[in-house]
Amino acid sequence: MGIDVDRIVNSKESSIDLITCLICHDILWKPVTCEICENSFCNDCITLWLEKHPSICPNNCDYKQRQRPPLLLVQLLSKLQIICKNHYTGCKDVLSYESLEQHEHECDFQMEQCTGCSKSMLKKERNIHEKTCDQIELQCHVCQLKYRRINGHNEVECLQNCLVQQQIKIQVLEENDRKQKIVLEKLQMKLTTLENLNNRRIIQFDDLVPNTEQQHTGLIGYNYANLNWENFDYLHISYAVRQDQHIRNSKLLNKNGSLHISAFTHGQEYVASCFFNPPEFPVIASSGRTFNIHSFYTNTMSPLSQIIIKGLKDNNELYTKTVFLTNNLTKIILEWLNIDQIQFHPGQYQGYCNDQLRISRLILT
């Protein structure tokens, strides 16, 4: 990949061998030299050679490149006068070895293709040709439309394109605005939740006043904690202890492992209790105003129960959540806003009838 010997105008046969590549047999171009055998090669030639013969010199020695070519070689190459490679297309310049590369890169007589019609022509002619070629692609500086010169571009089309682009920009802005509003609403909801948590109200049944004749179990008062409790009973811890003792004595514990006392983990004397007896279902409601619920603690007397919880306002279902409960007390997080009742429904039958749901703590915000 060197320079053809025929392009040298001042060559001497006695020195040609000293400046010839042993691979391509042309005049060395950008030479490198083997430090072992002192033979020189074109940089491109030895690179391709070493890809196929790693670390082996074309002269069959170990190849190790010298830091610089020999000074004599550099001096011989610098004295050469070389015809431009584009002399076949009209260039008559004769150049030194050092100036050859830059000249041939800029030479007006090198062949190039028109970027529009792909016709081959001299570089100096291409610049003139492309100013009138009807296949050249142009771009409108107003609407940025790209078009071929032959097709043209008028003001009406330009204005239409500008209008379309503006409409697209407006749609993008509206979409970004919509996304920002969603993010803002979520942040606002989190802020509201945090504010509500600071003002939360915990119903733990420690202030529940039982019926005079039913100290241990009975219906929860209709307006207890300013809420309406439909199909809910209260259960005293002493009752739970007696029932668990009965379970142990009757060896029923081995059947499902559930204990009544599991609901009493917050130190209170009472918990809310309900049975699932369709079509009736337990409801906690507020008359005349809405409330927010953050969470509640609950368990069941069955090994595994599926419970469906619904949040409603004006009899319209706003929220729903399905949970699986065991005898272990579990915190159910809802974070429901602006509802006026919570309904509890049995899910799929799990193998035990008359599931008992217990609520030991209700957190309103």
Provide the fold topology.
Blueprint: H1 13-16, E1 31-33, E2 40-42, H2 43-52, H3 71-78, E3 81-83, E4 94-96, H4 100-106, E5 111-113, E6 120-122, H5 123-129, E7 137-139, E8 146-148, H6 155-198, E9 201-203, E10 217-219, E11 228-230, E12 233-236, H7 237-249, H8 253-256, E13 270-275, E14 283-285, E15 291-300, E16 305-313, E17 316-325, E18 330-339, E19 341-346, E20 356-364
Antiparallel strand pairs: 1-2, 3-4, 5-6, 7-8, 9-20, 10-12, 11-14, 12-13, 13-20, 14-19, 15-18, 15-20, 16-17, 16-19
Tell me which oligomeric state these chains represent. Answer: single chain
CATH topology of the domain at 217-364: Jelly Rolls
Shape: elongated
By CATH, the architecture of the domain at 217-364 is named Sandwich
Number of E-state strands: 20
| Overall helicity | 25-40%
CA-to-CA gap between the ends?
84 Å
Main β-sheet: number of strands, strand sense, barrel status?
7 strands, antiparallel
Q: What's the CATH class label of the domain at 217-364? A: Mainly Beta
Radius of gyration: 46 Å
Describe the structure.
GO terms for molecular function: zinc ion binding. It comes from Adineta steineri. The chain is built from eight helices and 20 strands. It is of the alpha+beta class. Among the domains are: 79 residues, Herpes Virus-1 (2-Layer Sandwich), CATH 3.30.40.10; 148 residues, Jelly Rolls (Sandwich), CATH 2.60.120. Strands 9, 10, 12, 13, 15, 18 and 20 form a seven-stranded antiparallel β-sheet that branches. A five-stranded antiparallel β-sheet has the order 11-14-19-16-17, with no helix packed on it. The longest helix is centred in the middle third of the chain and has 44 residues. It is elongated, with a radius of gyration of 46 Å. It starts with 12 loop residues before the first helix and ends with a strand.
